[in-house]
Each structure stands twice: as structure tokens, then as C-alpha cells.
Amino acid sequence: MTQIDPSNPLAKKRARVEPPKPGTPAYKRMARRKAVRMGLNPSSGDEAVQMLQDRGFDVVSDRVSALDTTAAAANAAAKSASNLPAKTSGSSIVTTEPDGISAPPAGMISEKERREEIAKIQKGIAKRRQRKFILIAMRLMFFVALPTFLTGNYFYNHATEMYEIETQMVIQKADGGSGGGGLGGLLAGTGLANSEDSTIVQGFLNSREAMLKLNEELGFISHFQQEFIDDIQRLPADATLEDAYKKYKKFVKIGFDPTEGVIHMSVVAVDAETGTAFSRALIRLAEERVDKLSAPVREDQMRGAIQSYADAEQNVINAQQMVLDLQQRRGILSADAEISAQMSIIASLEVQLENKRLSLAEINANAQPNTARANALSAEITRLTDRVAELRLKLTGGAGSTISLARISGELRIAETELSMRQVLLQQALTQLETARIEANRQTRYLSLGVTPVAPDVPTRPRKMENTALALVIFMAIYIFISLLVSVFREQLSA
User: Fold this and answer.
1) Residues 330 and 262 reside in one and the same domain
2) Is the same domain home to 392 and 462?
3) How far apart are CA 350 and CA 346, in angstroms?
4) pTM to 2 decimals?
5) Which residue range(s) make up the domain with 430?
6) Which of 48, 230, 375, 439 could form a Cys-Cys staple with 32, CB 3.0–4.6 A?
7) For residues 44 and 21, is the Cβ–Cβ distance under 8 A?
8) What phi, psi does 175 have (nearest 5°)?
9) How far apart are CA 204 and CA 337, in angstroms?
10) 219 with 290, same domain?
């Protein structure tokens, strides 16, 4: 026996591809696998080799095909069906057919019978496939083709033609968003700046409130209750509010594009003029709602600023009146001027008093002073001293009911300070009022039309081809879904 060099990979590959030799265990295993594949049931490898040799198969070179497997199965069925005993136990007895062809050994079918059995099986398979194909075609015809035909017949022959009017709107600010800072300034030029207002307007146009206002103005419900409209699209005469609202949502489509900030509106009506009137009425209602969105903010800002300015102006008037009352009640226009005048008089009197005292001292310094002159000077000094004391008392503190100039000056200074402060606050309130007016103008929203409603000259609804194709896709999807569901249930029940 030739030894295989383990270090030589070519020798290993050659040894693997060499077929097994007869009598070896590998040869017997190969024979048994082929016999089982042909539908035979050998009990050992030797019996499998014998069965294959009886049927003219080479264990190594011949391959078992699907026809061989089918013929073996048919032969096994024929043998089990016939209950006749075998006439001979040997396989060497050969009979001769009339045409001179040698018959196969006992227990085997001839080549002609084998072909007939295969043809019969193929015909059965073809009949089953044809029957399944017919059933599938009938199901498709009943569940897909017939509903699609009825749908297309409705759209082409019975559906009432209508007109669709397209409109595009955008909500804008008064300032254009140039004054914002930070993230607001970055988003000011995009559709996100007014996305909240646009979403609110979209919700309003899709609401029952808009439908009721449109019905009050132009008779939306009665328009779709006309007799010439087909039964599917016509609104019944005794329709409820919910039925009318469903019809409104079907024929009035409102969409919002957040990337561009554009509101798309599509209105469908039986005639073009009515559809255009519906569109313009909805645009006007949207404008009113936009004005109401910004009106409370503007009114609140202006109301607070105007009230603050009115209060500051009234406080200035009150402070001015207080100063005027003090001037009239005290009889002094300016306390500072009055005090300056009084101090000038006191200073003059003190100069005179000092001169009189010097003169009296000169007289008294003589050896024989003039008594009359000295008495006169003493009297004048006394009068001057009393006058200066009286004037000083009037400045600092009055006697009896007399109010001093110091008190009057303090009262006037306080009142004038209050007046100055109120005037500053009035100026600030005026500045705030102007700022609030500017901000209120910035809060104003405008509804601008990108595409105005223009009625088409030919009906645009229904879209016959598109709707029919969509119906075909929907019915086909429903049929496939139900078929898969039934197949799954059948598999689960049969498991």
C-alpha cells in the first residue's frame, strides 16, 4: 500500500480526489448514500452495492438524478400496491418481450413503464399548477381587478368634476428681524422665526370655527348639498355639524412648510367662482386672526407705557402746583433772592452801626465830651442794633406767627427738588413710551400672499388616472396582506 507523505499537500489532495475502491468501507458508504437517495432501504453497505448493481448503476461514476429518485419512488409504490408473490427468487431469470427486448428481472419495472410513470407524475404536477394558477387568477380578479374596475368606473363616469384653487401665504414681521440678537437674530430670516404664528393660523383654518364662519358668509354647507353632485361627494340634507366638518377637512387642505415658513391652502369647490370666493374668505379670516395674535401684546405694551407717562406728567403738574402754592402763600417768589436782599440790608446796617460806635468812642475819648452829641449817637446805635437784631430774627426764627426765611427757603427748595425729580421721571417715561411704540410696531404681523387664488378654466378633480392606480395599489396590498395572514394561520394550525 502506498504511503502518503504528510508534508506533501499535493499528495494529500490527490488522495482526497481518488474515488474509493470496491470493497472498501468508503465504497460501501457511498453506495448506501446513493441507495437511500433513490428511495431504497438497504440494511447494509453490501446490500446497497447489490441493489445498485441490479439496477445498472455504477457506485462511483453514476450520479443519482431527480428522475431516478422519482422512478424509484414509483417503483416502490407499485411494488407495495401489488400483492402478487414472486415467481422466482433469483435475479438471473430473464424474459423476452414480443418485440425482442429483454424484460427486466422480477421485482423491477421496465424503462417504458418508468417513463410512463414519470410522465403521469409530471402531468399531475402540471394540472395542480394550472389549477392553483386559475384559483389565484380568480382571486385576483374578484378581490383586486373587480374593485379597481368599479373604482375607475366611478371616477371616469359618475364622479362630479370640481375645481381646485391653490394659495400660498407667509406671515412676516414689520421689522424683518434685523434688530434681534443671538439665536433670534440668526433665525430671523428663516421660516422658524414665525413658525408659531403660522402653526396657529394653520390650526385656525383647519378648525370648526373657520368652517362655521365660512358657512355663515358664503354657505359652505349648502354648496355641497346641491342635487347634481354625486352621492359619494354630496353632503346629505340632514347632515350634522360633524358631517359638514369632515367634508370641510376633505375639500379644504391646509399645510405648513416649516423650512420656508409658507402656508399652503387648497380649496375644492363645484364651480371655479365659488372656490375662489371660499379661498379669499379664508385668507381674510386668516388676516384677522394674525392681527388678533399680535394685538394683545401691542396693546399691553402701549397701555403700560402710556399709563406711566400719564402718571409722570400728573406728578410734575402736582409738584409745580406745590411750588406755586408755597410762593403765593409765603409771598416770596425766590427764597434765595429774599435772603440775599435781607443779608445786604443787615450788612449795610452793621457798617453804619460800626461807624456810630467809632464816633461815640471818639467823643467819649475827649476830655470834655459833648454830652448831647454822645447821647444822640448812643440813641442811633441802639436803634441800629435793634434793627439788625430784628432782621436777623426774621431770617432764622420769627416771633409769634411770623415764619422765618430759612423755613420758607427749605420748603421751596424741597418743592423745587421734587419738581426737578418729577421732570426727570417725565422725560424717562416719554422715552419709554417711544420705545414701547417702536416695539409695538415690531410686534405687528402681516399676512402676505405668495400665490394668489386663481381659478382654473377646466375641472381638476377628480384625478381619474391617479386615483384608479392608487386604488389598484391599495387593493393589491390588502390582498397580499390577507393572503400572507391566512398562510401564517394555516401553517400554525397544521404544525
Assistant:
1) no
2) no
3) 6
4) 0.53
5) 306-442
6) 48
7) no
8) -90, -5
9) 71
10) yes
